[in-house]
């Protein structure tokens, strides 16, 4: 690190997060004069070849993805034994912190956020990548309700996955990984869908579908135990939304929606078909203004009807003026002819 600049370019300003392998800093890129986020691999992991490869893999995997709901990777480098990734800086909070602060989100809020998350993950699936570690901590939410998915550190290219593969190493986060990941089996896009289901479950209930004291116990629960239906925890959750979540949390991948794109489309159809009271935001003050600005169906219909009434009045007035203007003209033309029935001569 030269003159307090990482890679002779990045000035670290403050630590904004940390994980199992790395710390994340808000930084200033002195070349482009913009704020960025810098992820630095911790010592002694920076000296471990496998962790070095893992960080480089994350940089390469995410650098090839360009989507509004995915964090953009700018740079990767090494400075005096320090390995780092530079990415766009997101001014906001992670979804886990948001859930803890709010206790739970309304079904309306949760579905709107999950549709955006599904769009980003679906793009990665179409690009041939499985995230493998989706969790609320890896999902960033900005103050204007934008969503950004981060941390592709353990992602897998679909082309490298064998359907019958088994591994002694279990990748992913125990509270959110799929049953097949819990057993060391091959991940697939449906594995990410399961994780999205676990996140959606937590958003609307305030708790993950399973809780235990150890990773082994959590793996067993994912493999063998059905989650408590969300409506058992909160009866205000719409039944159709509960059915979607329980399908996504099916033990067998073939019983779920196959990709995040499919889940996103299902949620969009649910929004279109939901009753007005299911679509409207809660009366509780929301953290993000965009969610409160969505117009309920009943208001949309009222505005449309009002616009149609004014159009009808305008057309009627135009017709009246048109016909009223033609009557004097007809009388004048008629009086020019002796045969006119109203001609006095």
CATH architecture designation of the largest domain: Orthogonal Bundle
N-to-C series of helices and strands? EEEHEEEHHEEEEHHHHHHHHH
Question: Mind describing the biggest β-sheet?
Answer: 5 strands, antiparallel
Strand content: 15-25%
The share of residues in helices is 40-55%
Number of domains: 3
- Name the CATH class of the largest domain: Mainly Alpha
Strands side by side in the biggest sheet: 1-2-3-5-4
Tell me the structural class.
alpha+beta
Based on CA atoms alone, the radius of gyration comes out at 29 Å
CATH superfamily of the largest domain: Transferase(Phosphotransferase) domain 1
User: Whole-Å distance between the termini?
Assistant: 112 Å
- Outline, from the CA principal axes? globular
Low-confidence stretches: 280-308
Instruction: Classify the fold: give the CATH topology of the largest domain.
Output: Transferase(Phosphotransferase), domain 1
Number of helices: 12
Number of E-type strands? 10
Mean pLDDT: 78
Give an account of the 3D structure.
The chain is of the alpha+beta class and 345 residues long. It folds into three domains: 10-88, Phosphorylase Kinase, domain 1 (2-Layer Sandwich), CATH 3.30.200; 92-292, Transferase(Phosphotransferase) domain 1 (Transferase(Phosphotransferase), domain 1); 299-345. Helices cover 43% and strands 15% of the residues. The protein has twelve helices and ten strands. It has helices at residues 49-63, 95-102, 107-126, 179-182, 189-205, 215-224, 230-233, 239-248, 260-273, 276-279, 289-292, 297-335, and strands at 10-18, 22-29, 34-41, 73-79, 82-88, 92-94, 129-130, 139-142, 147-149, 156-157. A hairpin with a 2-residue loop joins β4 and β5. α3 (107-126) packs antiparallel against α5. The longest helix is centred in the last third of the chain and has 39 residues, at 297-335.
């Amino acid at each position: 690190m030269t003159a307090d600049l990482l890679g002779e370019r990045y000035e670290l300003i403050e630590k904004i997060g940390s994980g199992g392998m790395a710390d994340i800093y808000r930084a200033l890129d002195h070349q482009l004069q913009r704020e960025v986020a810098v992820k630095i691999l911790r010592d002694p992991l920076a000296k471990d070849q496998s962790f070095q490869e893992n960080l480089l893999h994350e940089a390469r995997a995410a650098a090839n993805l360009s989507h509004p709901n995915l964090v953009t990777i700018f740079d990767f480098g090494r400075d005096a034994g320090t390995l780092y990734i530079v990415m766009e800086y997101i001014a906001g909070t992670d979804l886990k912190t948001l859930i803890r602060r709010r206790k739970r989100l309304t079904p309306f809020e949760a579905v709107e956020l999950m549709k955006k998350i599904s769009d980003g993950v679906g793009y990665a699936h179409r690009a041939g990548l499985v995230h493998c570690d989706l969790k609320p901590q890896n999902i960033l939410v900005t103050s204007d309700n934008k969503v950004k998915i981060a941390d592709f550190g353990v992602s897998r290219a679909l082309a490298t996955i064998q359907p019958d593969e088994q591994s002694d190493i279990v990748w992913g986060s125990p509270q959110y990984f799929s049953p097949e990941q819990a057993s060391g089996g091959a991940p697939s896009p449906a594995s990410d869908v399961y994780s999205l289901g676990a996140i959606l479950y937590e958003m609307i209930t305030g708790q993950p579908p399973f809780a235990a004291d150890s990773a082994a116990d959590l793996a067993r629960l994912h493999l063998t135990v059905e989650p408590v239906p969300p409506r058992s925890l909160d009866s205000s959750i719409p039944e159709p939304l509960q059915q979607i979540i329980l399908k996504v949390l099916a033990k067998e991948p073939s019983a779920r929606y196959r990709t995040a794109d499919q889940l996103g489309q299902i949620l969009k159809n649910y929004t279109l078909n939901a009753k007005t009271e299911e679509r409207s935001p809660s009366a509780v003050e929301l953290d993000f203004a965009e969610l409160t600005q969505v117009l309920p169906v009943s208001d949309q219909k009222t505005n449309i009807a009002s616009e149609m009434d004014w159009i009808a009045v305008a057309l009627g007035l135009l017709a009246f003026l048109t016909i009223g203007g033609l009557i004097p003209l007809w009388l004048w033309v008629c009086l020019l002819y002796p045969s006119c029935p109203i001609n006095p001569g």
